[in-house]
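Researcher: Here's a chain I'd like modeled. Treat it as a single chain, no partners, no ligands.
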Amino acid sequence: MPLDFSRRNILRLAAGAAAAPRLYSFQQPPAAPVPEQVTPFRGRSVVGLVKGEDRRKNVCQALETVEDQILPALKRKKYAVIKPNNVSTANQLASTHADTLQGILDFLEPRFKGPVVIAESSAGQTMDAFENFHYDRVARERRAQKVSLVDLNAEAKYEVIPLLDANLHVTPCRLASRLLDPDAFQICAAILKTHNVVVATLSVKNMTLGAPLHQAPGETKRWSDKRKYHVGVRQTHYNMLVTAQKMAPFWGATVIDGYEGMEGNGPASGVPVTSRTAVASTDFIAADRVGVELMGINPDWIGYLNFCGQCGLGSYELGKIEIRGNTRLVDAVKKYQLHRDIERELEWMGPMNEVPPKLG
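Model: Modeled as a single isolated chain. C-alpha cells:
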C-alpha cells in the first residue's frame, strides 16, 4: 500500500501523539511496504545487552557477553582500531565518552596484545575533539596497551568509492584507508542518538559517515566528502548502503553506548535520555536493530538499515537475533523524542515524484 504523506494525514498522525507522556512525532506510524530480500542473511546473530549504573562496566560487560563471537577474528589481527563518534568537537553528549573507550580497552587488555589506535575523521578538527573529550588522557593511561590517537583527515590516506549526488549522477568519495585495513580489528564506539536526516544514528551511521575525509589541518583548499552524503532524503540512505557494503568486510565488533543517549534534534543538538544500557555485537546491523528497539523507534523508518538487511550485511530481523545479557530488551526500552523534521525524513518511504511515473 503506498504511503500517504499528505498534509491531512501527517496532521492526523501528529495529533495522535499529543496525548503521549513523552513528545513523540507519531503514535501510530504509517505502514511501510515489505522490503524484498536481495541477498538474504543466513543464520542467527548474537547481541549483548547490559543495563547498569556504570558506563565503563556496561561497555566491558556487553562485549564480554559476545566474547566467543569476537575472539576468533581478534586473534588474527595485528592491531585494533576504535572508531568513536565525534560529530561534535565540543558537545560531550553528542560524542563518544572517554569511559566508553576505557570499557573497550578493559575488554581488550587481557585478550589482545597488539597496539590499539583510536581513529576518527571528525567534521571539525579531530584533535580538538580528542583533547576536549580527554582521549589524550586515555592514551597516556593506557601506554601499556600501546594506545595512540590518529586524525584520519591528517593521515590523508584513502580509497575511492562511487556515490550518487543530488542529481542522481555518480560522484567519487574518499574513505579513510585505515578503516578498510584487513590487518586491523575495527571496533565501533557508537551512541544511541536521533538524527536530522536518517531518523537514528548508531553503529552503521558512525562508521559510514566517519570514514569520508575532509581537508587535512593546514590545507588551504576546503573540501569535505562528508557533504556528499547530504544530497537528498533517498540518496543519503542509498549512499550509506554503498559505503557499508565497502566497509562491512572489515568490521570487527561494535559497542553502542546508551548510558546517556540523545533525543530530539540529534545528532548534535538534542537533549539527554537516561537509558543506562550498552549493546555489543559482531553484527553491526543486528546491534543497530536492538538499538532502534531500545529507542522505541519503528525499525521500518530507517532506510539505510533496511537496505543493509536486504543486502545481507547483517540481521535486521529481531526474530533472528539472540540477545544475551543481564536485562530483557522489553525491560530496557525507552521511547526517544524524534527530530523536529521527522515528517520530512520519512518521505524516503513514499513514492518518488521528482520524475514522471511513465516515460517511453
